[in-house]
Amino acid sequence: MIKFTVITLFPEALEPYLSCSMMWKAREKGLAEFELVNLRDFGLGPHKSVDDTPYGGGDGMLLRCEPVFAAVESVKAGSPDAKVILPTPVGEIWNQEMAKELAGTLQISVTPARHYIILCPHYEGYDERILSIVDYKVSMGKYVLTGGELPALIIIDSVVRLIPGVLGGEQSAEIESFSDGDNLEYPQYTKPYDFRGMKVPDVLLSGNHGEIAKWRAEHSGRIS
Ligand code: ADE
After folding, report:
1. Which ligand 1 atom lies nearest to the CA of residue 121?
2. What CATH architecture does domain 2-219 belong to?
């Protein structure tokens, strides 16, 4: 069982994705649990404020420490070992090895239940002191998004699909694209054989498993 708690100002942005397809199945099978915590509930004053202007001047508003610490501490009260992930453009670039590490599939031994808290910053940034409660800073690439919600979904999706049992009867996640370092999947075809003049390579219809394996190995993409 793996659990993700997402602390966000926009829980409604995440709920639909976590309620369909594989994420829904993982939930139904009891393999994954998702919890959405509204950061606004920990906001300050009558307006439930969560951000303020930067010391030293500058544009925009920064996420304040108090609501973030209160939200994380409330989750950790019931789960002291939960690890905190912060999506940020200056984090380590997210990759398959990191997804495996979080899923626990890099370890040979039976792994205990895992609980991750994803803290979604929004607007222009966050108070640097928030980093003192963060275990992993991860970036989705060298571009800037408006918040951590899309990164949170990418992290959850790429980790949950690696949990044994989630992909069900499909080919295991192990032999799919990216699961073996930088080894990419080979091209695949289904019916019809001839679509608008584009034909399926004949070797795939040959029934010769050795030749098929060779063709697939030759046609697997590689990044490096
Ligand atoms: N927040 C804003 N941009 C981001 C990115 N590229 N990756 C992770 N978090 C972000």
Report:
1. 1
2. 3-Layer(aba) Sandwich (3.40)
